[in-house]
Amino acid sequence: MQRIPFLSRILLFCLAFCTCLAKQPPWVMRISCGGRLDVHTAPTNTLWFKDFAYTGGIPANATRPSYISPPLKTLRYFPLSSGPNNCYNINNVPSGHYVVRVFFGLDGHPNFDNEPLFDISVEGTQIYSLKSGWTNQDDQVFTEALVFLNDGTASLCFHSTGHGDPAILSIEILQVDDRAYYFGPAWGSGIILRTAARLSCGNGKPKFDVDYSGDHWGGDRFWSAIKTFGQGSDLATSTESGIKMASNAPNFYPEALYQTALVSTDTQPDLAYTMDVDPNRNYSIWLHFAEIDSSVTTAGKRVFDILINGDAVFEEVDVVKMSGDRYTALVLNTTVAVNGRTLTISLHPKEGSQAIINAIEVFEIVAAESKTLLEEVRALQSLKSALGLPLRFGWNGDPCVPQQHPWNGADCLYDKTSSKWFIDGLGLDNQGLRGFLPNDISRLLHLQSINLSDNSIHGAIPPSIGSIAGLVVLDLSYNLFNGSIPESLGQLTSLRRLNLNGNSLSGRVPAALGGRLLHGTSFKYVAISGALKYLLALNGIHP
């Protein structure tokens, strides 16, 4: 028996190990919103997990707004009574790069808005706003974005805008390669790529990657079919020949994507595609080519320029030369700034046959919002529970971002040094609060103002408030606080206004606090028993 040398055995082991790693499937989570059971859907036998303990809202029977929507029977909607911000919080998500996709739903109930309009955010960054008429556009019944998830969780929030109740059919979180859609030095964890358009040219039927038998690491992209850019402006062509270099890392495009194309004509030599976009944004554009025209046999037979909004971004593109052969995939990427409301991609022939294109992808480049300090988010969540904050406040997600939808009653300030938001004010006066004030309020270290007046908050004033060094205003008047005034309030050297009247407090004003009042602090304290009354204000009166 022939022996394999030791080093060769190590090499074979390493190759086998690397091959095994390469074949590991991506992490996938698909949720059937409102579903009480896991379900598999035809024709691909896709698994959708039941909707359990991720969020609030109300489950209901679903109406699919489009034939491309997943064939699911339930949805979850969020009435305004549950608050303006509602979120799915998904835990145990491995750190990595993901496609996050949300399909919208319609509730068949007569009182339900036939076309709700709302905003969607991922990880605190707003990525999309539904536009009027979305139910009539197949490519608008969902939104998706490429995002890095690095803290073990995924947060997807739906923000009411006063035009019906947000209704969600499904949520997908699909892992992709860590380097997928790398577009240059600006790319990274601080960037979100929102899909603005994805077109399969010359194809007559919209498809997902799975319909193309695409690699699972591609994120199961949806490709809208476009048979023509304009009446008589081009011709569709196709091939059954195999395409080389298509399903390569990191984007793993399906081979079949390159087996159809649009080709310009003699009467209309330029190919041009125009789409609506949001103005004053940056867009990452990915153009796909493969020479599948049998009449083009060598390099130099088809050469064209590519222009975006009239500016040349690629000159003398020769697909055969640049890809290395016929029937070989070529992908070109560029980033453009768009000031207007349209984006036009033009292919202008220079040599030989007319222009050709197989597919187009357009992504809006979105800067990820900086989040609120985690310790302060947790403190607010504790406060929400202890005070019994009404659902209408919608304290879900991040308190400060997206900036279009901050929490009511919490004031935010951005710290450039730490690149984090923090809470510098609480304004929850006259909100019918009936709980107690927890010690955790002291974890809001950046507070300058607390106004909880005119509620029914009971219990003792937590001594921990005295550790909020920057506090300037503390108004706890007209509640049901009892016990004595904590000695620790005397440590609040920045305090300028303290209102404690209208409570069931008793005892003396702490000596340290009384001394502070000589230096201009406004103070109101009334003992309900009538045995003691203090009213100190800026006029210098003190006990």
TrEMBL record:
Signal peptide segment: 1-22
Record's subcellular location: Membrane
Transmembrane in keyword set: yes
GO CC annotation: membrane
Keyword Transmembrane helix: yes
InterPro entries: Leu-rich_rpt, Malectin-like_Carb-bd_dom
Coiled-coil residues: none
Domain Malectin-like: 31-364
Main location: membrane
Membrane topology: Single-pass membrane protein
Keywords: Membrane, Signal, Transmembrane, Transmembrane helix
Protein's UniProt name: Malectin-like domain-containing protein
